[in-house]
Amino acid sequence: MRDLPYRWIEAIQDRRDYIEDQLRLGSPVVGLPYENGSLLLTVTKGAQKIFEVHDRIALSAIGHPADIEQLRMLVTDTASVQAFQSATEDVNLHRLTHYVLAHTFKQAFEAIVGEAYIIKMLLVEIGDGDAKTQFTHINYDGNVNIHDDSAVIGGTTEIENAMQDYLITEQSDTGCDLATTIQLALKTWAVGRELSQRFEEAEDNIEVTDEQIDEILKTELEEGEIEIGILDNTLPADTKFRILSQDEIQGLTN
Amino acid sequence: MKHKGDFLNLLRHADTLMDDAEVARETFEVDIERKQNLIGAAPKPISDALQFPSHGKPTPGTTLEIPEATTVVAMRYQNGIIIAGDRRATAGTSIVHDRAEKVLPIDAHSVLAISGAPAMAYEIARVLKHSFQYFRRSQLQELSVEGKLRTLSRLIRDNLPMAMQGIGAVIPIFALYAPQTDEAENGGKIYFYDALGAHFENVDFATTGSGSIWIRGVLRYLDRWGDTRLEDMDQRQATITILRLLDTASEYDAATSGYNAKAEIFPTVKTITHEGVENLTEVYLKECYLEAT
């Protein structure tokens, strides 16, 4: 097929359509900084979706659970081996993204006789000293986008853009406390969720009202649970990551 | 998932495992075979040859080097475990370093206190730390207490050929707090290891290193007949007691350092409680020293 360029391009486009169709209903993930570090938030119906990669790096993804698991292990294994071989300080998100994940995504996506990964990944690394906090969004085709202030992953690019627009409108200060940041992240998640559910009806309708946000949160939280992973610079241990318990989340969201 | 949380297995498959232990084991086996050919005698089985450390005297029939230059001590107190070590590192009769760290935090609730060859001991502590982290990150749960104990057993056993060749034995104390324990109970646990990797739980206290013989009896006396049992002591009482014990060891063991008032070098003292591992500050230790002496 590679000797027929037009068929190859067509095959890639088919693959893109297939993957985007699979990702469309995925539960979005929101990454935001807060006064002590950064958080990742989503709503799940069972399986854990936010993971510790290394001391200062966390990961979340939407897509096929088997693909998420495989790539989560790839990045966790690589970080662990590198930290042991040299030092923990030598493990950073830039290297993991550009030398491990991005080309793995791209190779799988473009090898049209093989299986592509059905995945979008969001990673965050909190700064230490002069280093800045960084959010990294990796698309299923290996495209990488780096953000300083916040990042989201949603089923489609349009959903992500709408979520980002909501964040730009609502995000007043990057140094908010944890409870305020969780509220904003949860509402942004609701915007993405609402749009993923209505996309079949009208692709250009991206307005989401406060009432709709409240309504979708009420509906979704009947069956699902809020999941939050934080990277907290004030934790005394080397590892800054922890998953908030449901009791803590209840206390912070009520 | 193919490594199932086993960090050593991961390193092996990453072609990065420092196969020192395996190389040493092979060298040891070749060495034994060569000696057997020379003298025509059967090699002495390892299980026969190894004994518990005999405090400074090599066990006959082996080249096992017994740890000689340390005192580390751990005991249960009211809130958990207090664990301390002197700061001296020696080579023969020379003092080579007076600020050595022998009480090493491994994770949020566990600490390894080392005696023996520093190179091996530090490497074992490093592998242990990475192993616990890797298990948590890959398997999405903390390694169990039993799992932690076995991981350390395996590392000490892998070091056996090095110990047999006289390159360096490691006899640590491993202390941890089981955080899932009911808050009304003391979740502190102290484990003592032998050179083959067997572990034994010491209920109230443990001490190892060359200075340990001078204070083991004192610990027993205090625990049995002291005004306050070790487990009933508060943090300040426990700190003063453990500083006095190290001071006693340093009085009789040249390889154990005491408090160096001139250079203000204090022993390393840590507590392990439900809240985690805490390093007691030099300011606090200085206050306790004034009270202790």
List keywords for this structure.
heterodimer; A: Glutamine Phosphoribosylpyrophosphate, subunit 1, domain 1; 5-stranded antiparallel sheet; 7 helices; B: 293 residues; alpha+beta
Count every helix of chain B, treating DSSP H or I runs of 4 or more residues as helices: 9
Structural class of chain B: alpha+beta
Largest sheet of chain A, described in full? 5 strands, antiparallel
CATH level-4 homologous superfamily of chain A = Aminohydrolase, N-terminal nucleophile (Ntn) domain
- End-to-end C-alpha gap of chain B: 55 Å
- The fraction of residues assigned to DSSP E strands of chain B is 15-25%
Write the layout of secondary structure elements.
The complex is a heterodimer of chains A (254) and B (293).
Chain A: H1 5-23, E1 29-34, E2 37-44, E3 50-54, E4 57-63, H2 65-85, H3 93-110, E5 119-125, E6 134-138, E7 144-147, E8 151-153, H4 157-170, H5 178-198, H6 210-223, E9 225-232, E10 241-243, H7 246-253
Helix pairs in contact in A: 4-5, 5-6
Chain B: H1 7-13, H2 20-39, H3 46-49, E1 72-77, E2 80-85, E3 89-91, E4 94-97, E5 103-107, E6 110-113, H4 118-139, H5 145-158, H6 160-164, E7 173-177, E8 188-193, E9 199-202, E10 205-208, H7 212-225, H8 235-252, E11 268-273, E12 276-279, H9 282-292
Helix pairs in contact in B: 4-5, 7-8, 8-9
Could you characterize what this model shows?
The complex is a heterodimer of chains A (about 250) and B (about 290). In chain A, the strands form two sheets. Chain A has a five-stranded antiparallel sheet with strand order 8-1-2-9-10. In chain A, strands 3-4-5-6-7 form a five-stranded antiparallel sheet. Chain A has helices at about 5-25, 65-85, 95-110, 155-170, 180-200, 210-225, 245-254, and strands at about 30-35, 35-45, 50-55, 55-65, 120-125, 135-140, 145, 150-155, 225-230, 240-245. Chain A is globular and about 60 Å long. Chain A has a single domain (about 25-255), classed as 4-Layer Sandwich (Glutamine Phosphoribosylpyrophosphate, subunit 1, domain 1), CATH 3.60.20.10. The longest helix of chain A is centred in the N-terminal third of the chain and has 21 residues, at about 65-85. In chain A, strand 6 and strand 7 (about 145) form a beta hairpin. With about 250 residues, chain A is α+β, with helices and mostly antiparallel strands. The model of chain A has no long low-confidence stretch (mean pLDDT about 90). In chain A, helix 4 (about 155-170) packs antiparallel against helix 5 and helix 5 crosses helix 6 (about 210-225). Chain B is of the alpha+beta class and about 290 residues long. In chain B, about 40% of the residues lie in helices and about 20% in strands. Chain B has nine helices and twelve strands. In chain B, the strands form three sheets. Chain B has a five-stranded antiparallel sheet with strand order 10-1-2-11-12, with helices on one face. A five-stranded antiparallel sheet of chain B has the order 5-6-7-8-9. Chain B has a two-stranded antiparallel ribbon with strand order 3-4. In chain B, helix 4 runs antiparallel to helix 5, helix 7 (about 210-225) runs antiparallel to helix 8 (about 235-250) and helix 8 packs across helix 9. Mean pLDDT of chain B is about 80; it is low at about 15-20 and about 40-65. Chains A and B meet through strand 3 and helix 2 of A and helix 1 and helix 4 of B.
